[in-house]
Automatic annotation (TrEMBL):
It catalyses: FMN + ATP + H(+) = FAD + diphosphate; riboflavin + ATP = FMN + ADP + H(+). Belongs to the RibF family. Keywords: ATP-binding, FAD, Flavoprotein, FMN, Kinase, Nucleotide-binding, Nucleotidyltransferase, Transferase. Residues 245-446 form the Riboflavin kinase domain. One of its GO terms (biological process) is FMN biosynthetic process. PANTHER family: RIBOFLAVIN KINASE, RIBOFLAVIN KINASE/FMN ADENYLYLTRANSFERASE. This is Bifunctional riboflavin kinase/FMN adenylyltransferase. InterPro entries: FAD_synthase, Riboflavin_kinase, Riboflavin_kinase_bac/euk, Riboflavin_kinase_dom_sf, Rossmann-like_a/b/a_fold. Pathway: Cofactor biosynthesis; FAD biosynthesis; FAD from FMN: step 1/1. CDD domains: FAD_synthetase_N. One of its GO terms (molecular function) is riboflavin kinase activity. Residues 302-348 are annotated as: Disordered. Pfam families: FAD_syn, Flavokinase.
Length: 452
């Protein structure tokens, strides 16, 4: 899979590359945040159609998410989103999406920085560019896709344009999945009140009760297979439902840094993640899941004597050479995609080398993969004493090995919610609860392993 970063100029024009002088392209477009089953169905159809016609399969992936760019612009007098802006609501980083796309057999991914100037172009102009520059013969989109200035390029308009011009075909994919569900228009993180995976609050409601709930919460019909529903589920701690939509365990990835070493003192040494992580952080609580060591980060800053890595420059193998010997990190949610020369190809050798390594380390039975009891929160048992109220992610790997992972890039996968964060009266009570969580984790991950 070949990857290229593209940055529009100040007027919103993109210098599209010539992918082939002999083959035409089958193209799909979107941000693909989460790469859930709906996205996978769309990309798989695109790859299938390309292979049928001996064409190139091409994904045009927007970064940042269009909603983020437009929301920021509305709040800042039309300003473009800063290149260092961190999207805390992104479900997955760019390189997490690239992993899935490579597995699906995509030939080319063009990562386009989404700007307001770019968005101001009409969908007719945009599609004309794809036909003329990329040789697009077929466009594959989902039913609810929209594009172009004022979001006027909906499925019907695009289908009419394809029929009228005859220069490309439009393939509309029904990736609705199992249907729709009501999601509050303005949801907030909701910490489960008791142990175990929380249930759908609307599951046993009558029609009248559901209408009342929808009115109170401004519930909107949303596709079950959607990024919006995924964020809502993760913010409630409903991990199993989210994983069903993803077709895999939801995960965050980040750099291991030194913590308070409180866990080591009580016999449960944990891996602590840096403040900036890649992926959507679920609601506070204790979870069962997995810890995967993805290898030592290439760029670290040990100036503080603790080996803490520079969170903005962790090179994870997905880079874009800009002619100055530097690498733009695709592992960071805030990756800017800026290059000196538009259309600079990413370092393909680095990408595939890292991909092979990641696959081996993430695979079931890998020696770099361990069951893990995961905590998200502010450590309520000690926060009053220490004054530290930061929201932290830490994972206790259930293994007899001594793990020295400082400065490593790790993946934390969530299988199920175990319990909310609780303030214990003593360290002994905390240790007893952690021991129970470890056993629960072993039970859950043994079941997960047997299923796979």
């Amino acid at each position: 899979m070949k990857i290229m970063s593209l940055t529009p100029d100040g007027s919103g024009l993109v210098d599209w590359p010539t992918l082939s002088t002999q083959k035409r392209s089958v193209v799909t477009v979107g941000s693909f945040d989460g790469m859930h089953r709906g996205h996978q169905a769309l990309v798989s159809r695109m790859v299938e159609e390309a292979r049928k016609s001996n064409a190139l399969s091409v994904v045009i992936m927007f970064d940042p998410r269009p909603k983020v760019a437009h929301t920021y612009g509305s709040a800042h007098d039309g300003m473009e989103l800063p290149t260092d802006y961190v999207d805390s609501q992104a479900l997955t980083s760019i390189h997490q999406r690239l992993r899935v796309m490579e597995e699906l057999g995509v030939d080319h991914v063009l990562v386009v920085r989404y700007t307001l100037a770019f968005a101001a172009k009409s969908y007719r102009f945009f599609l004309g560019q794809l036909v003329g520059k990329l040789g697009m013969r077929t466009l594959v989109l989902g039913k609810d896709a929209v594009m172009g200035s004022g979001r006027t390029g909906d499925a019907k308009s695009i289908a009419d344009l394809a029929a009228a011009t005859g220069v490309f075909e439009f393939d509309q994919v029904d990736s609705q999945g199992p249907g729709e569900v009501r999601v509050p228009a303005q949801w907030t993180y909701q910490v489960p009140q008791g142990p175990g995976e929380p249930a759908d609050p609307t599951e046993r409601m009558s029609k009248a009760e559901l209408r009342a709930w929808s009115k109170d919460h401004q519930g909107r019909l949303t596709r079950i297979w959607s990024s919006s529903n995924l964020r809502y589920l993760l913010a409630q701690g409903r991990i199993k439902a989210a994983n069903e939509i993803l077709g895999r365990a939801h995960a965050v990835e980040g750099l291991v840094v030194h913590g308070e070493q409180r866990g080591r003192e009580i016999g449960f040494p944990t891996v602590n993640l840096a403040d900036h992580v890649e992926g959507f952080i679920p609601v506070d609580g204790v979870y069962a899941g997995w810890l995967v060591d993805l290898g030592e980060a290439e760029t670290t800053d040990a100036a503080d004597g603790q080996g803490v890595a520079d969170q903005q420059s962790v090179a994870h193998g997905y880079g874009s050479a800009d002619g100055k010997g530097e690498t733009k990190d695709l592992g960071q949610t805030a990756w800017s995609g800026q290059t000196d020369a538009p259309g600079t190809p990413l370092n393909e050798d680095d990408f595939h080398r890292q991909l092979v390594s990641d696959r081996a380390r993430m695979a079931p039975g890998s020696p770099w993969r361990w069951p893990a009891a995961i905590s998200i929160g502010s450590k309520p048992t000690y926060s009053e004493r220490t004054g530290l109220l930061n929201r932290v992610i830490e994972a206790y790997a259930v293994t007899d090995q001594w793990l020295e992972l400082y400065g490593h890039h790790v993946r934390v996968e969530f299988e199920t919610f175990l319990r909310p964060q609780v303030k214990f009266d003593s360290t002994e009570e905390l240790k007893q609860a952690l021991a129970e969580n470890v056993q629960q984790t072993l039970d859950v991950t043994a079941y997960s392993t047997s299923k796979s």
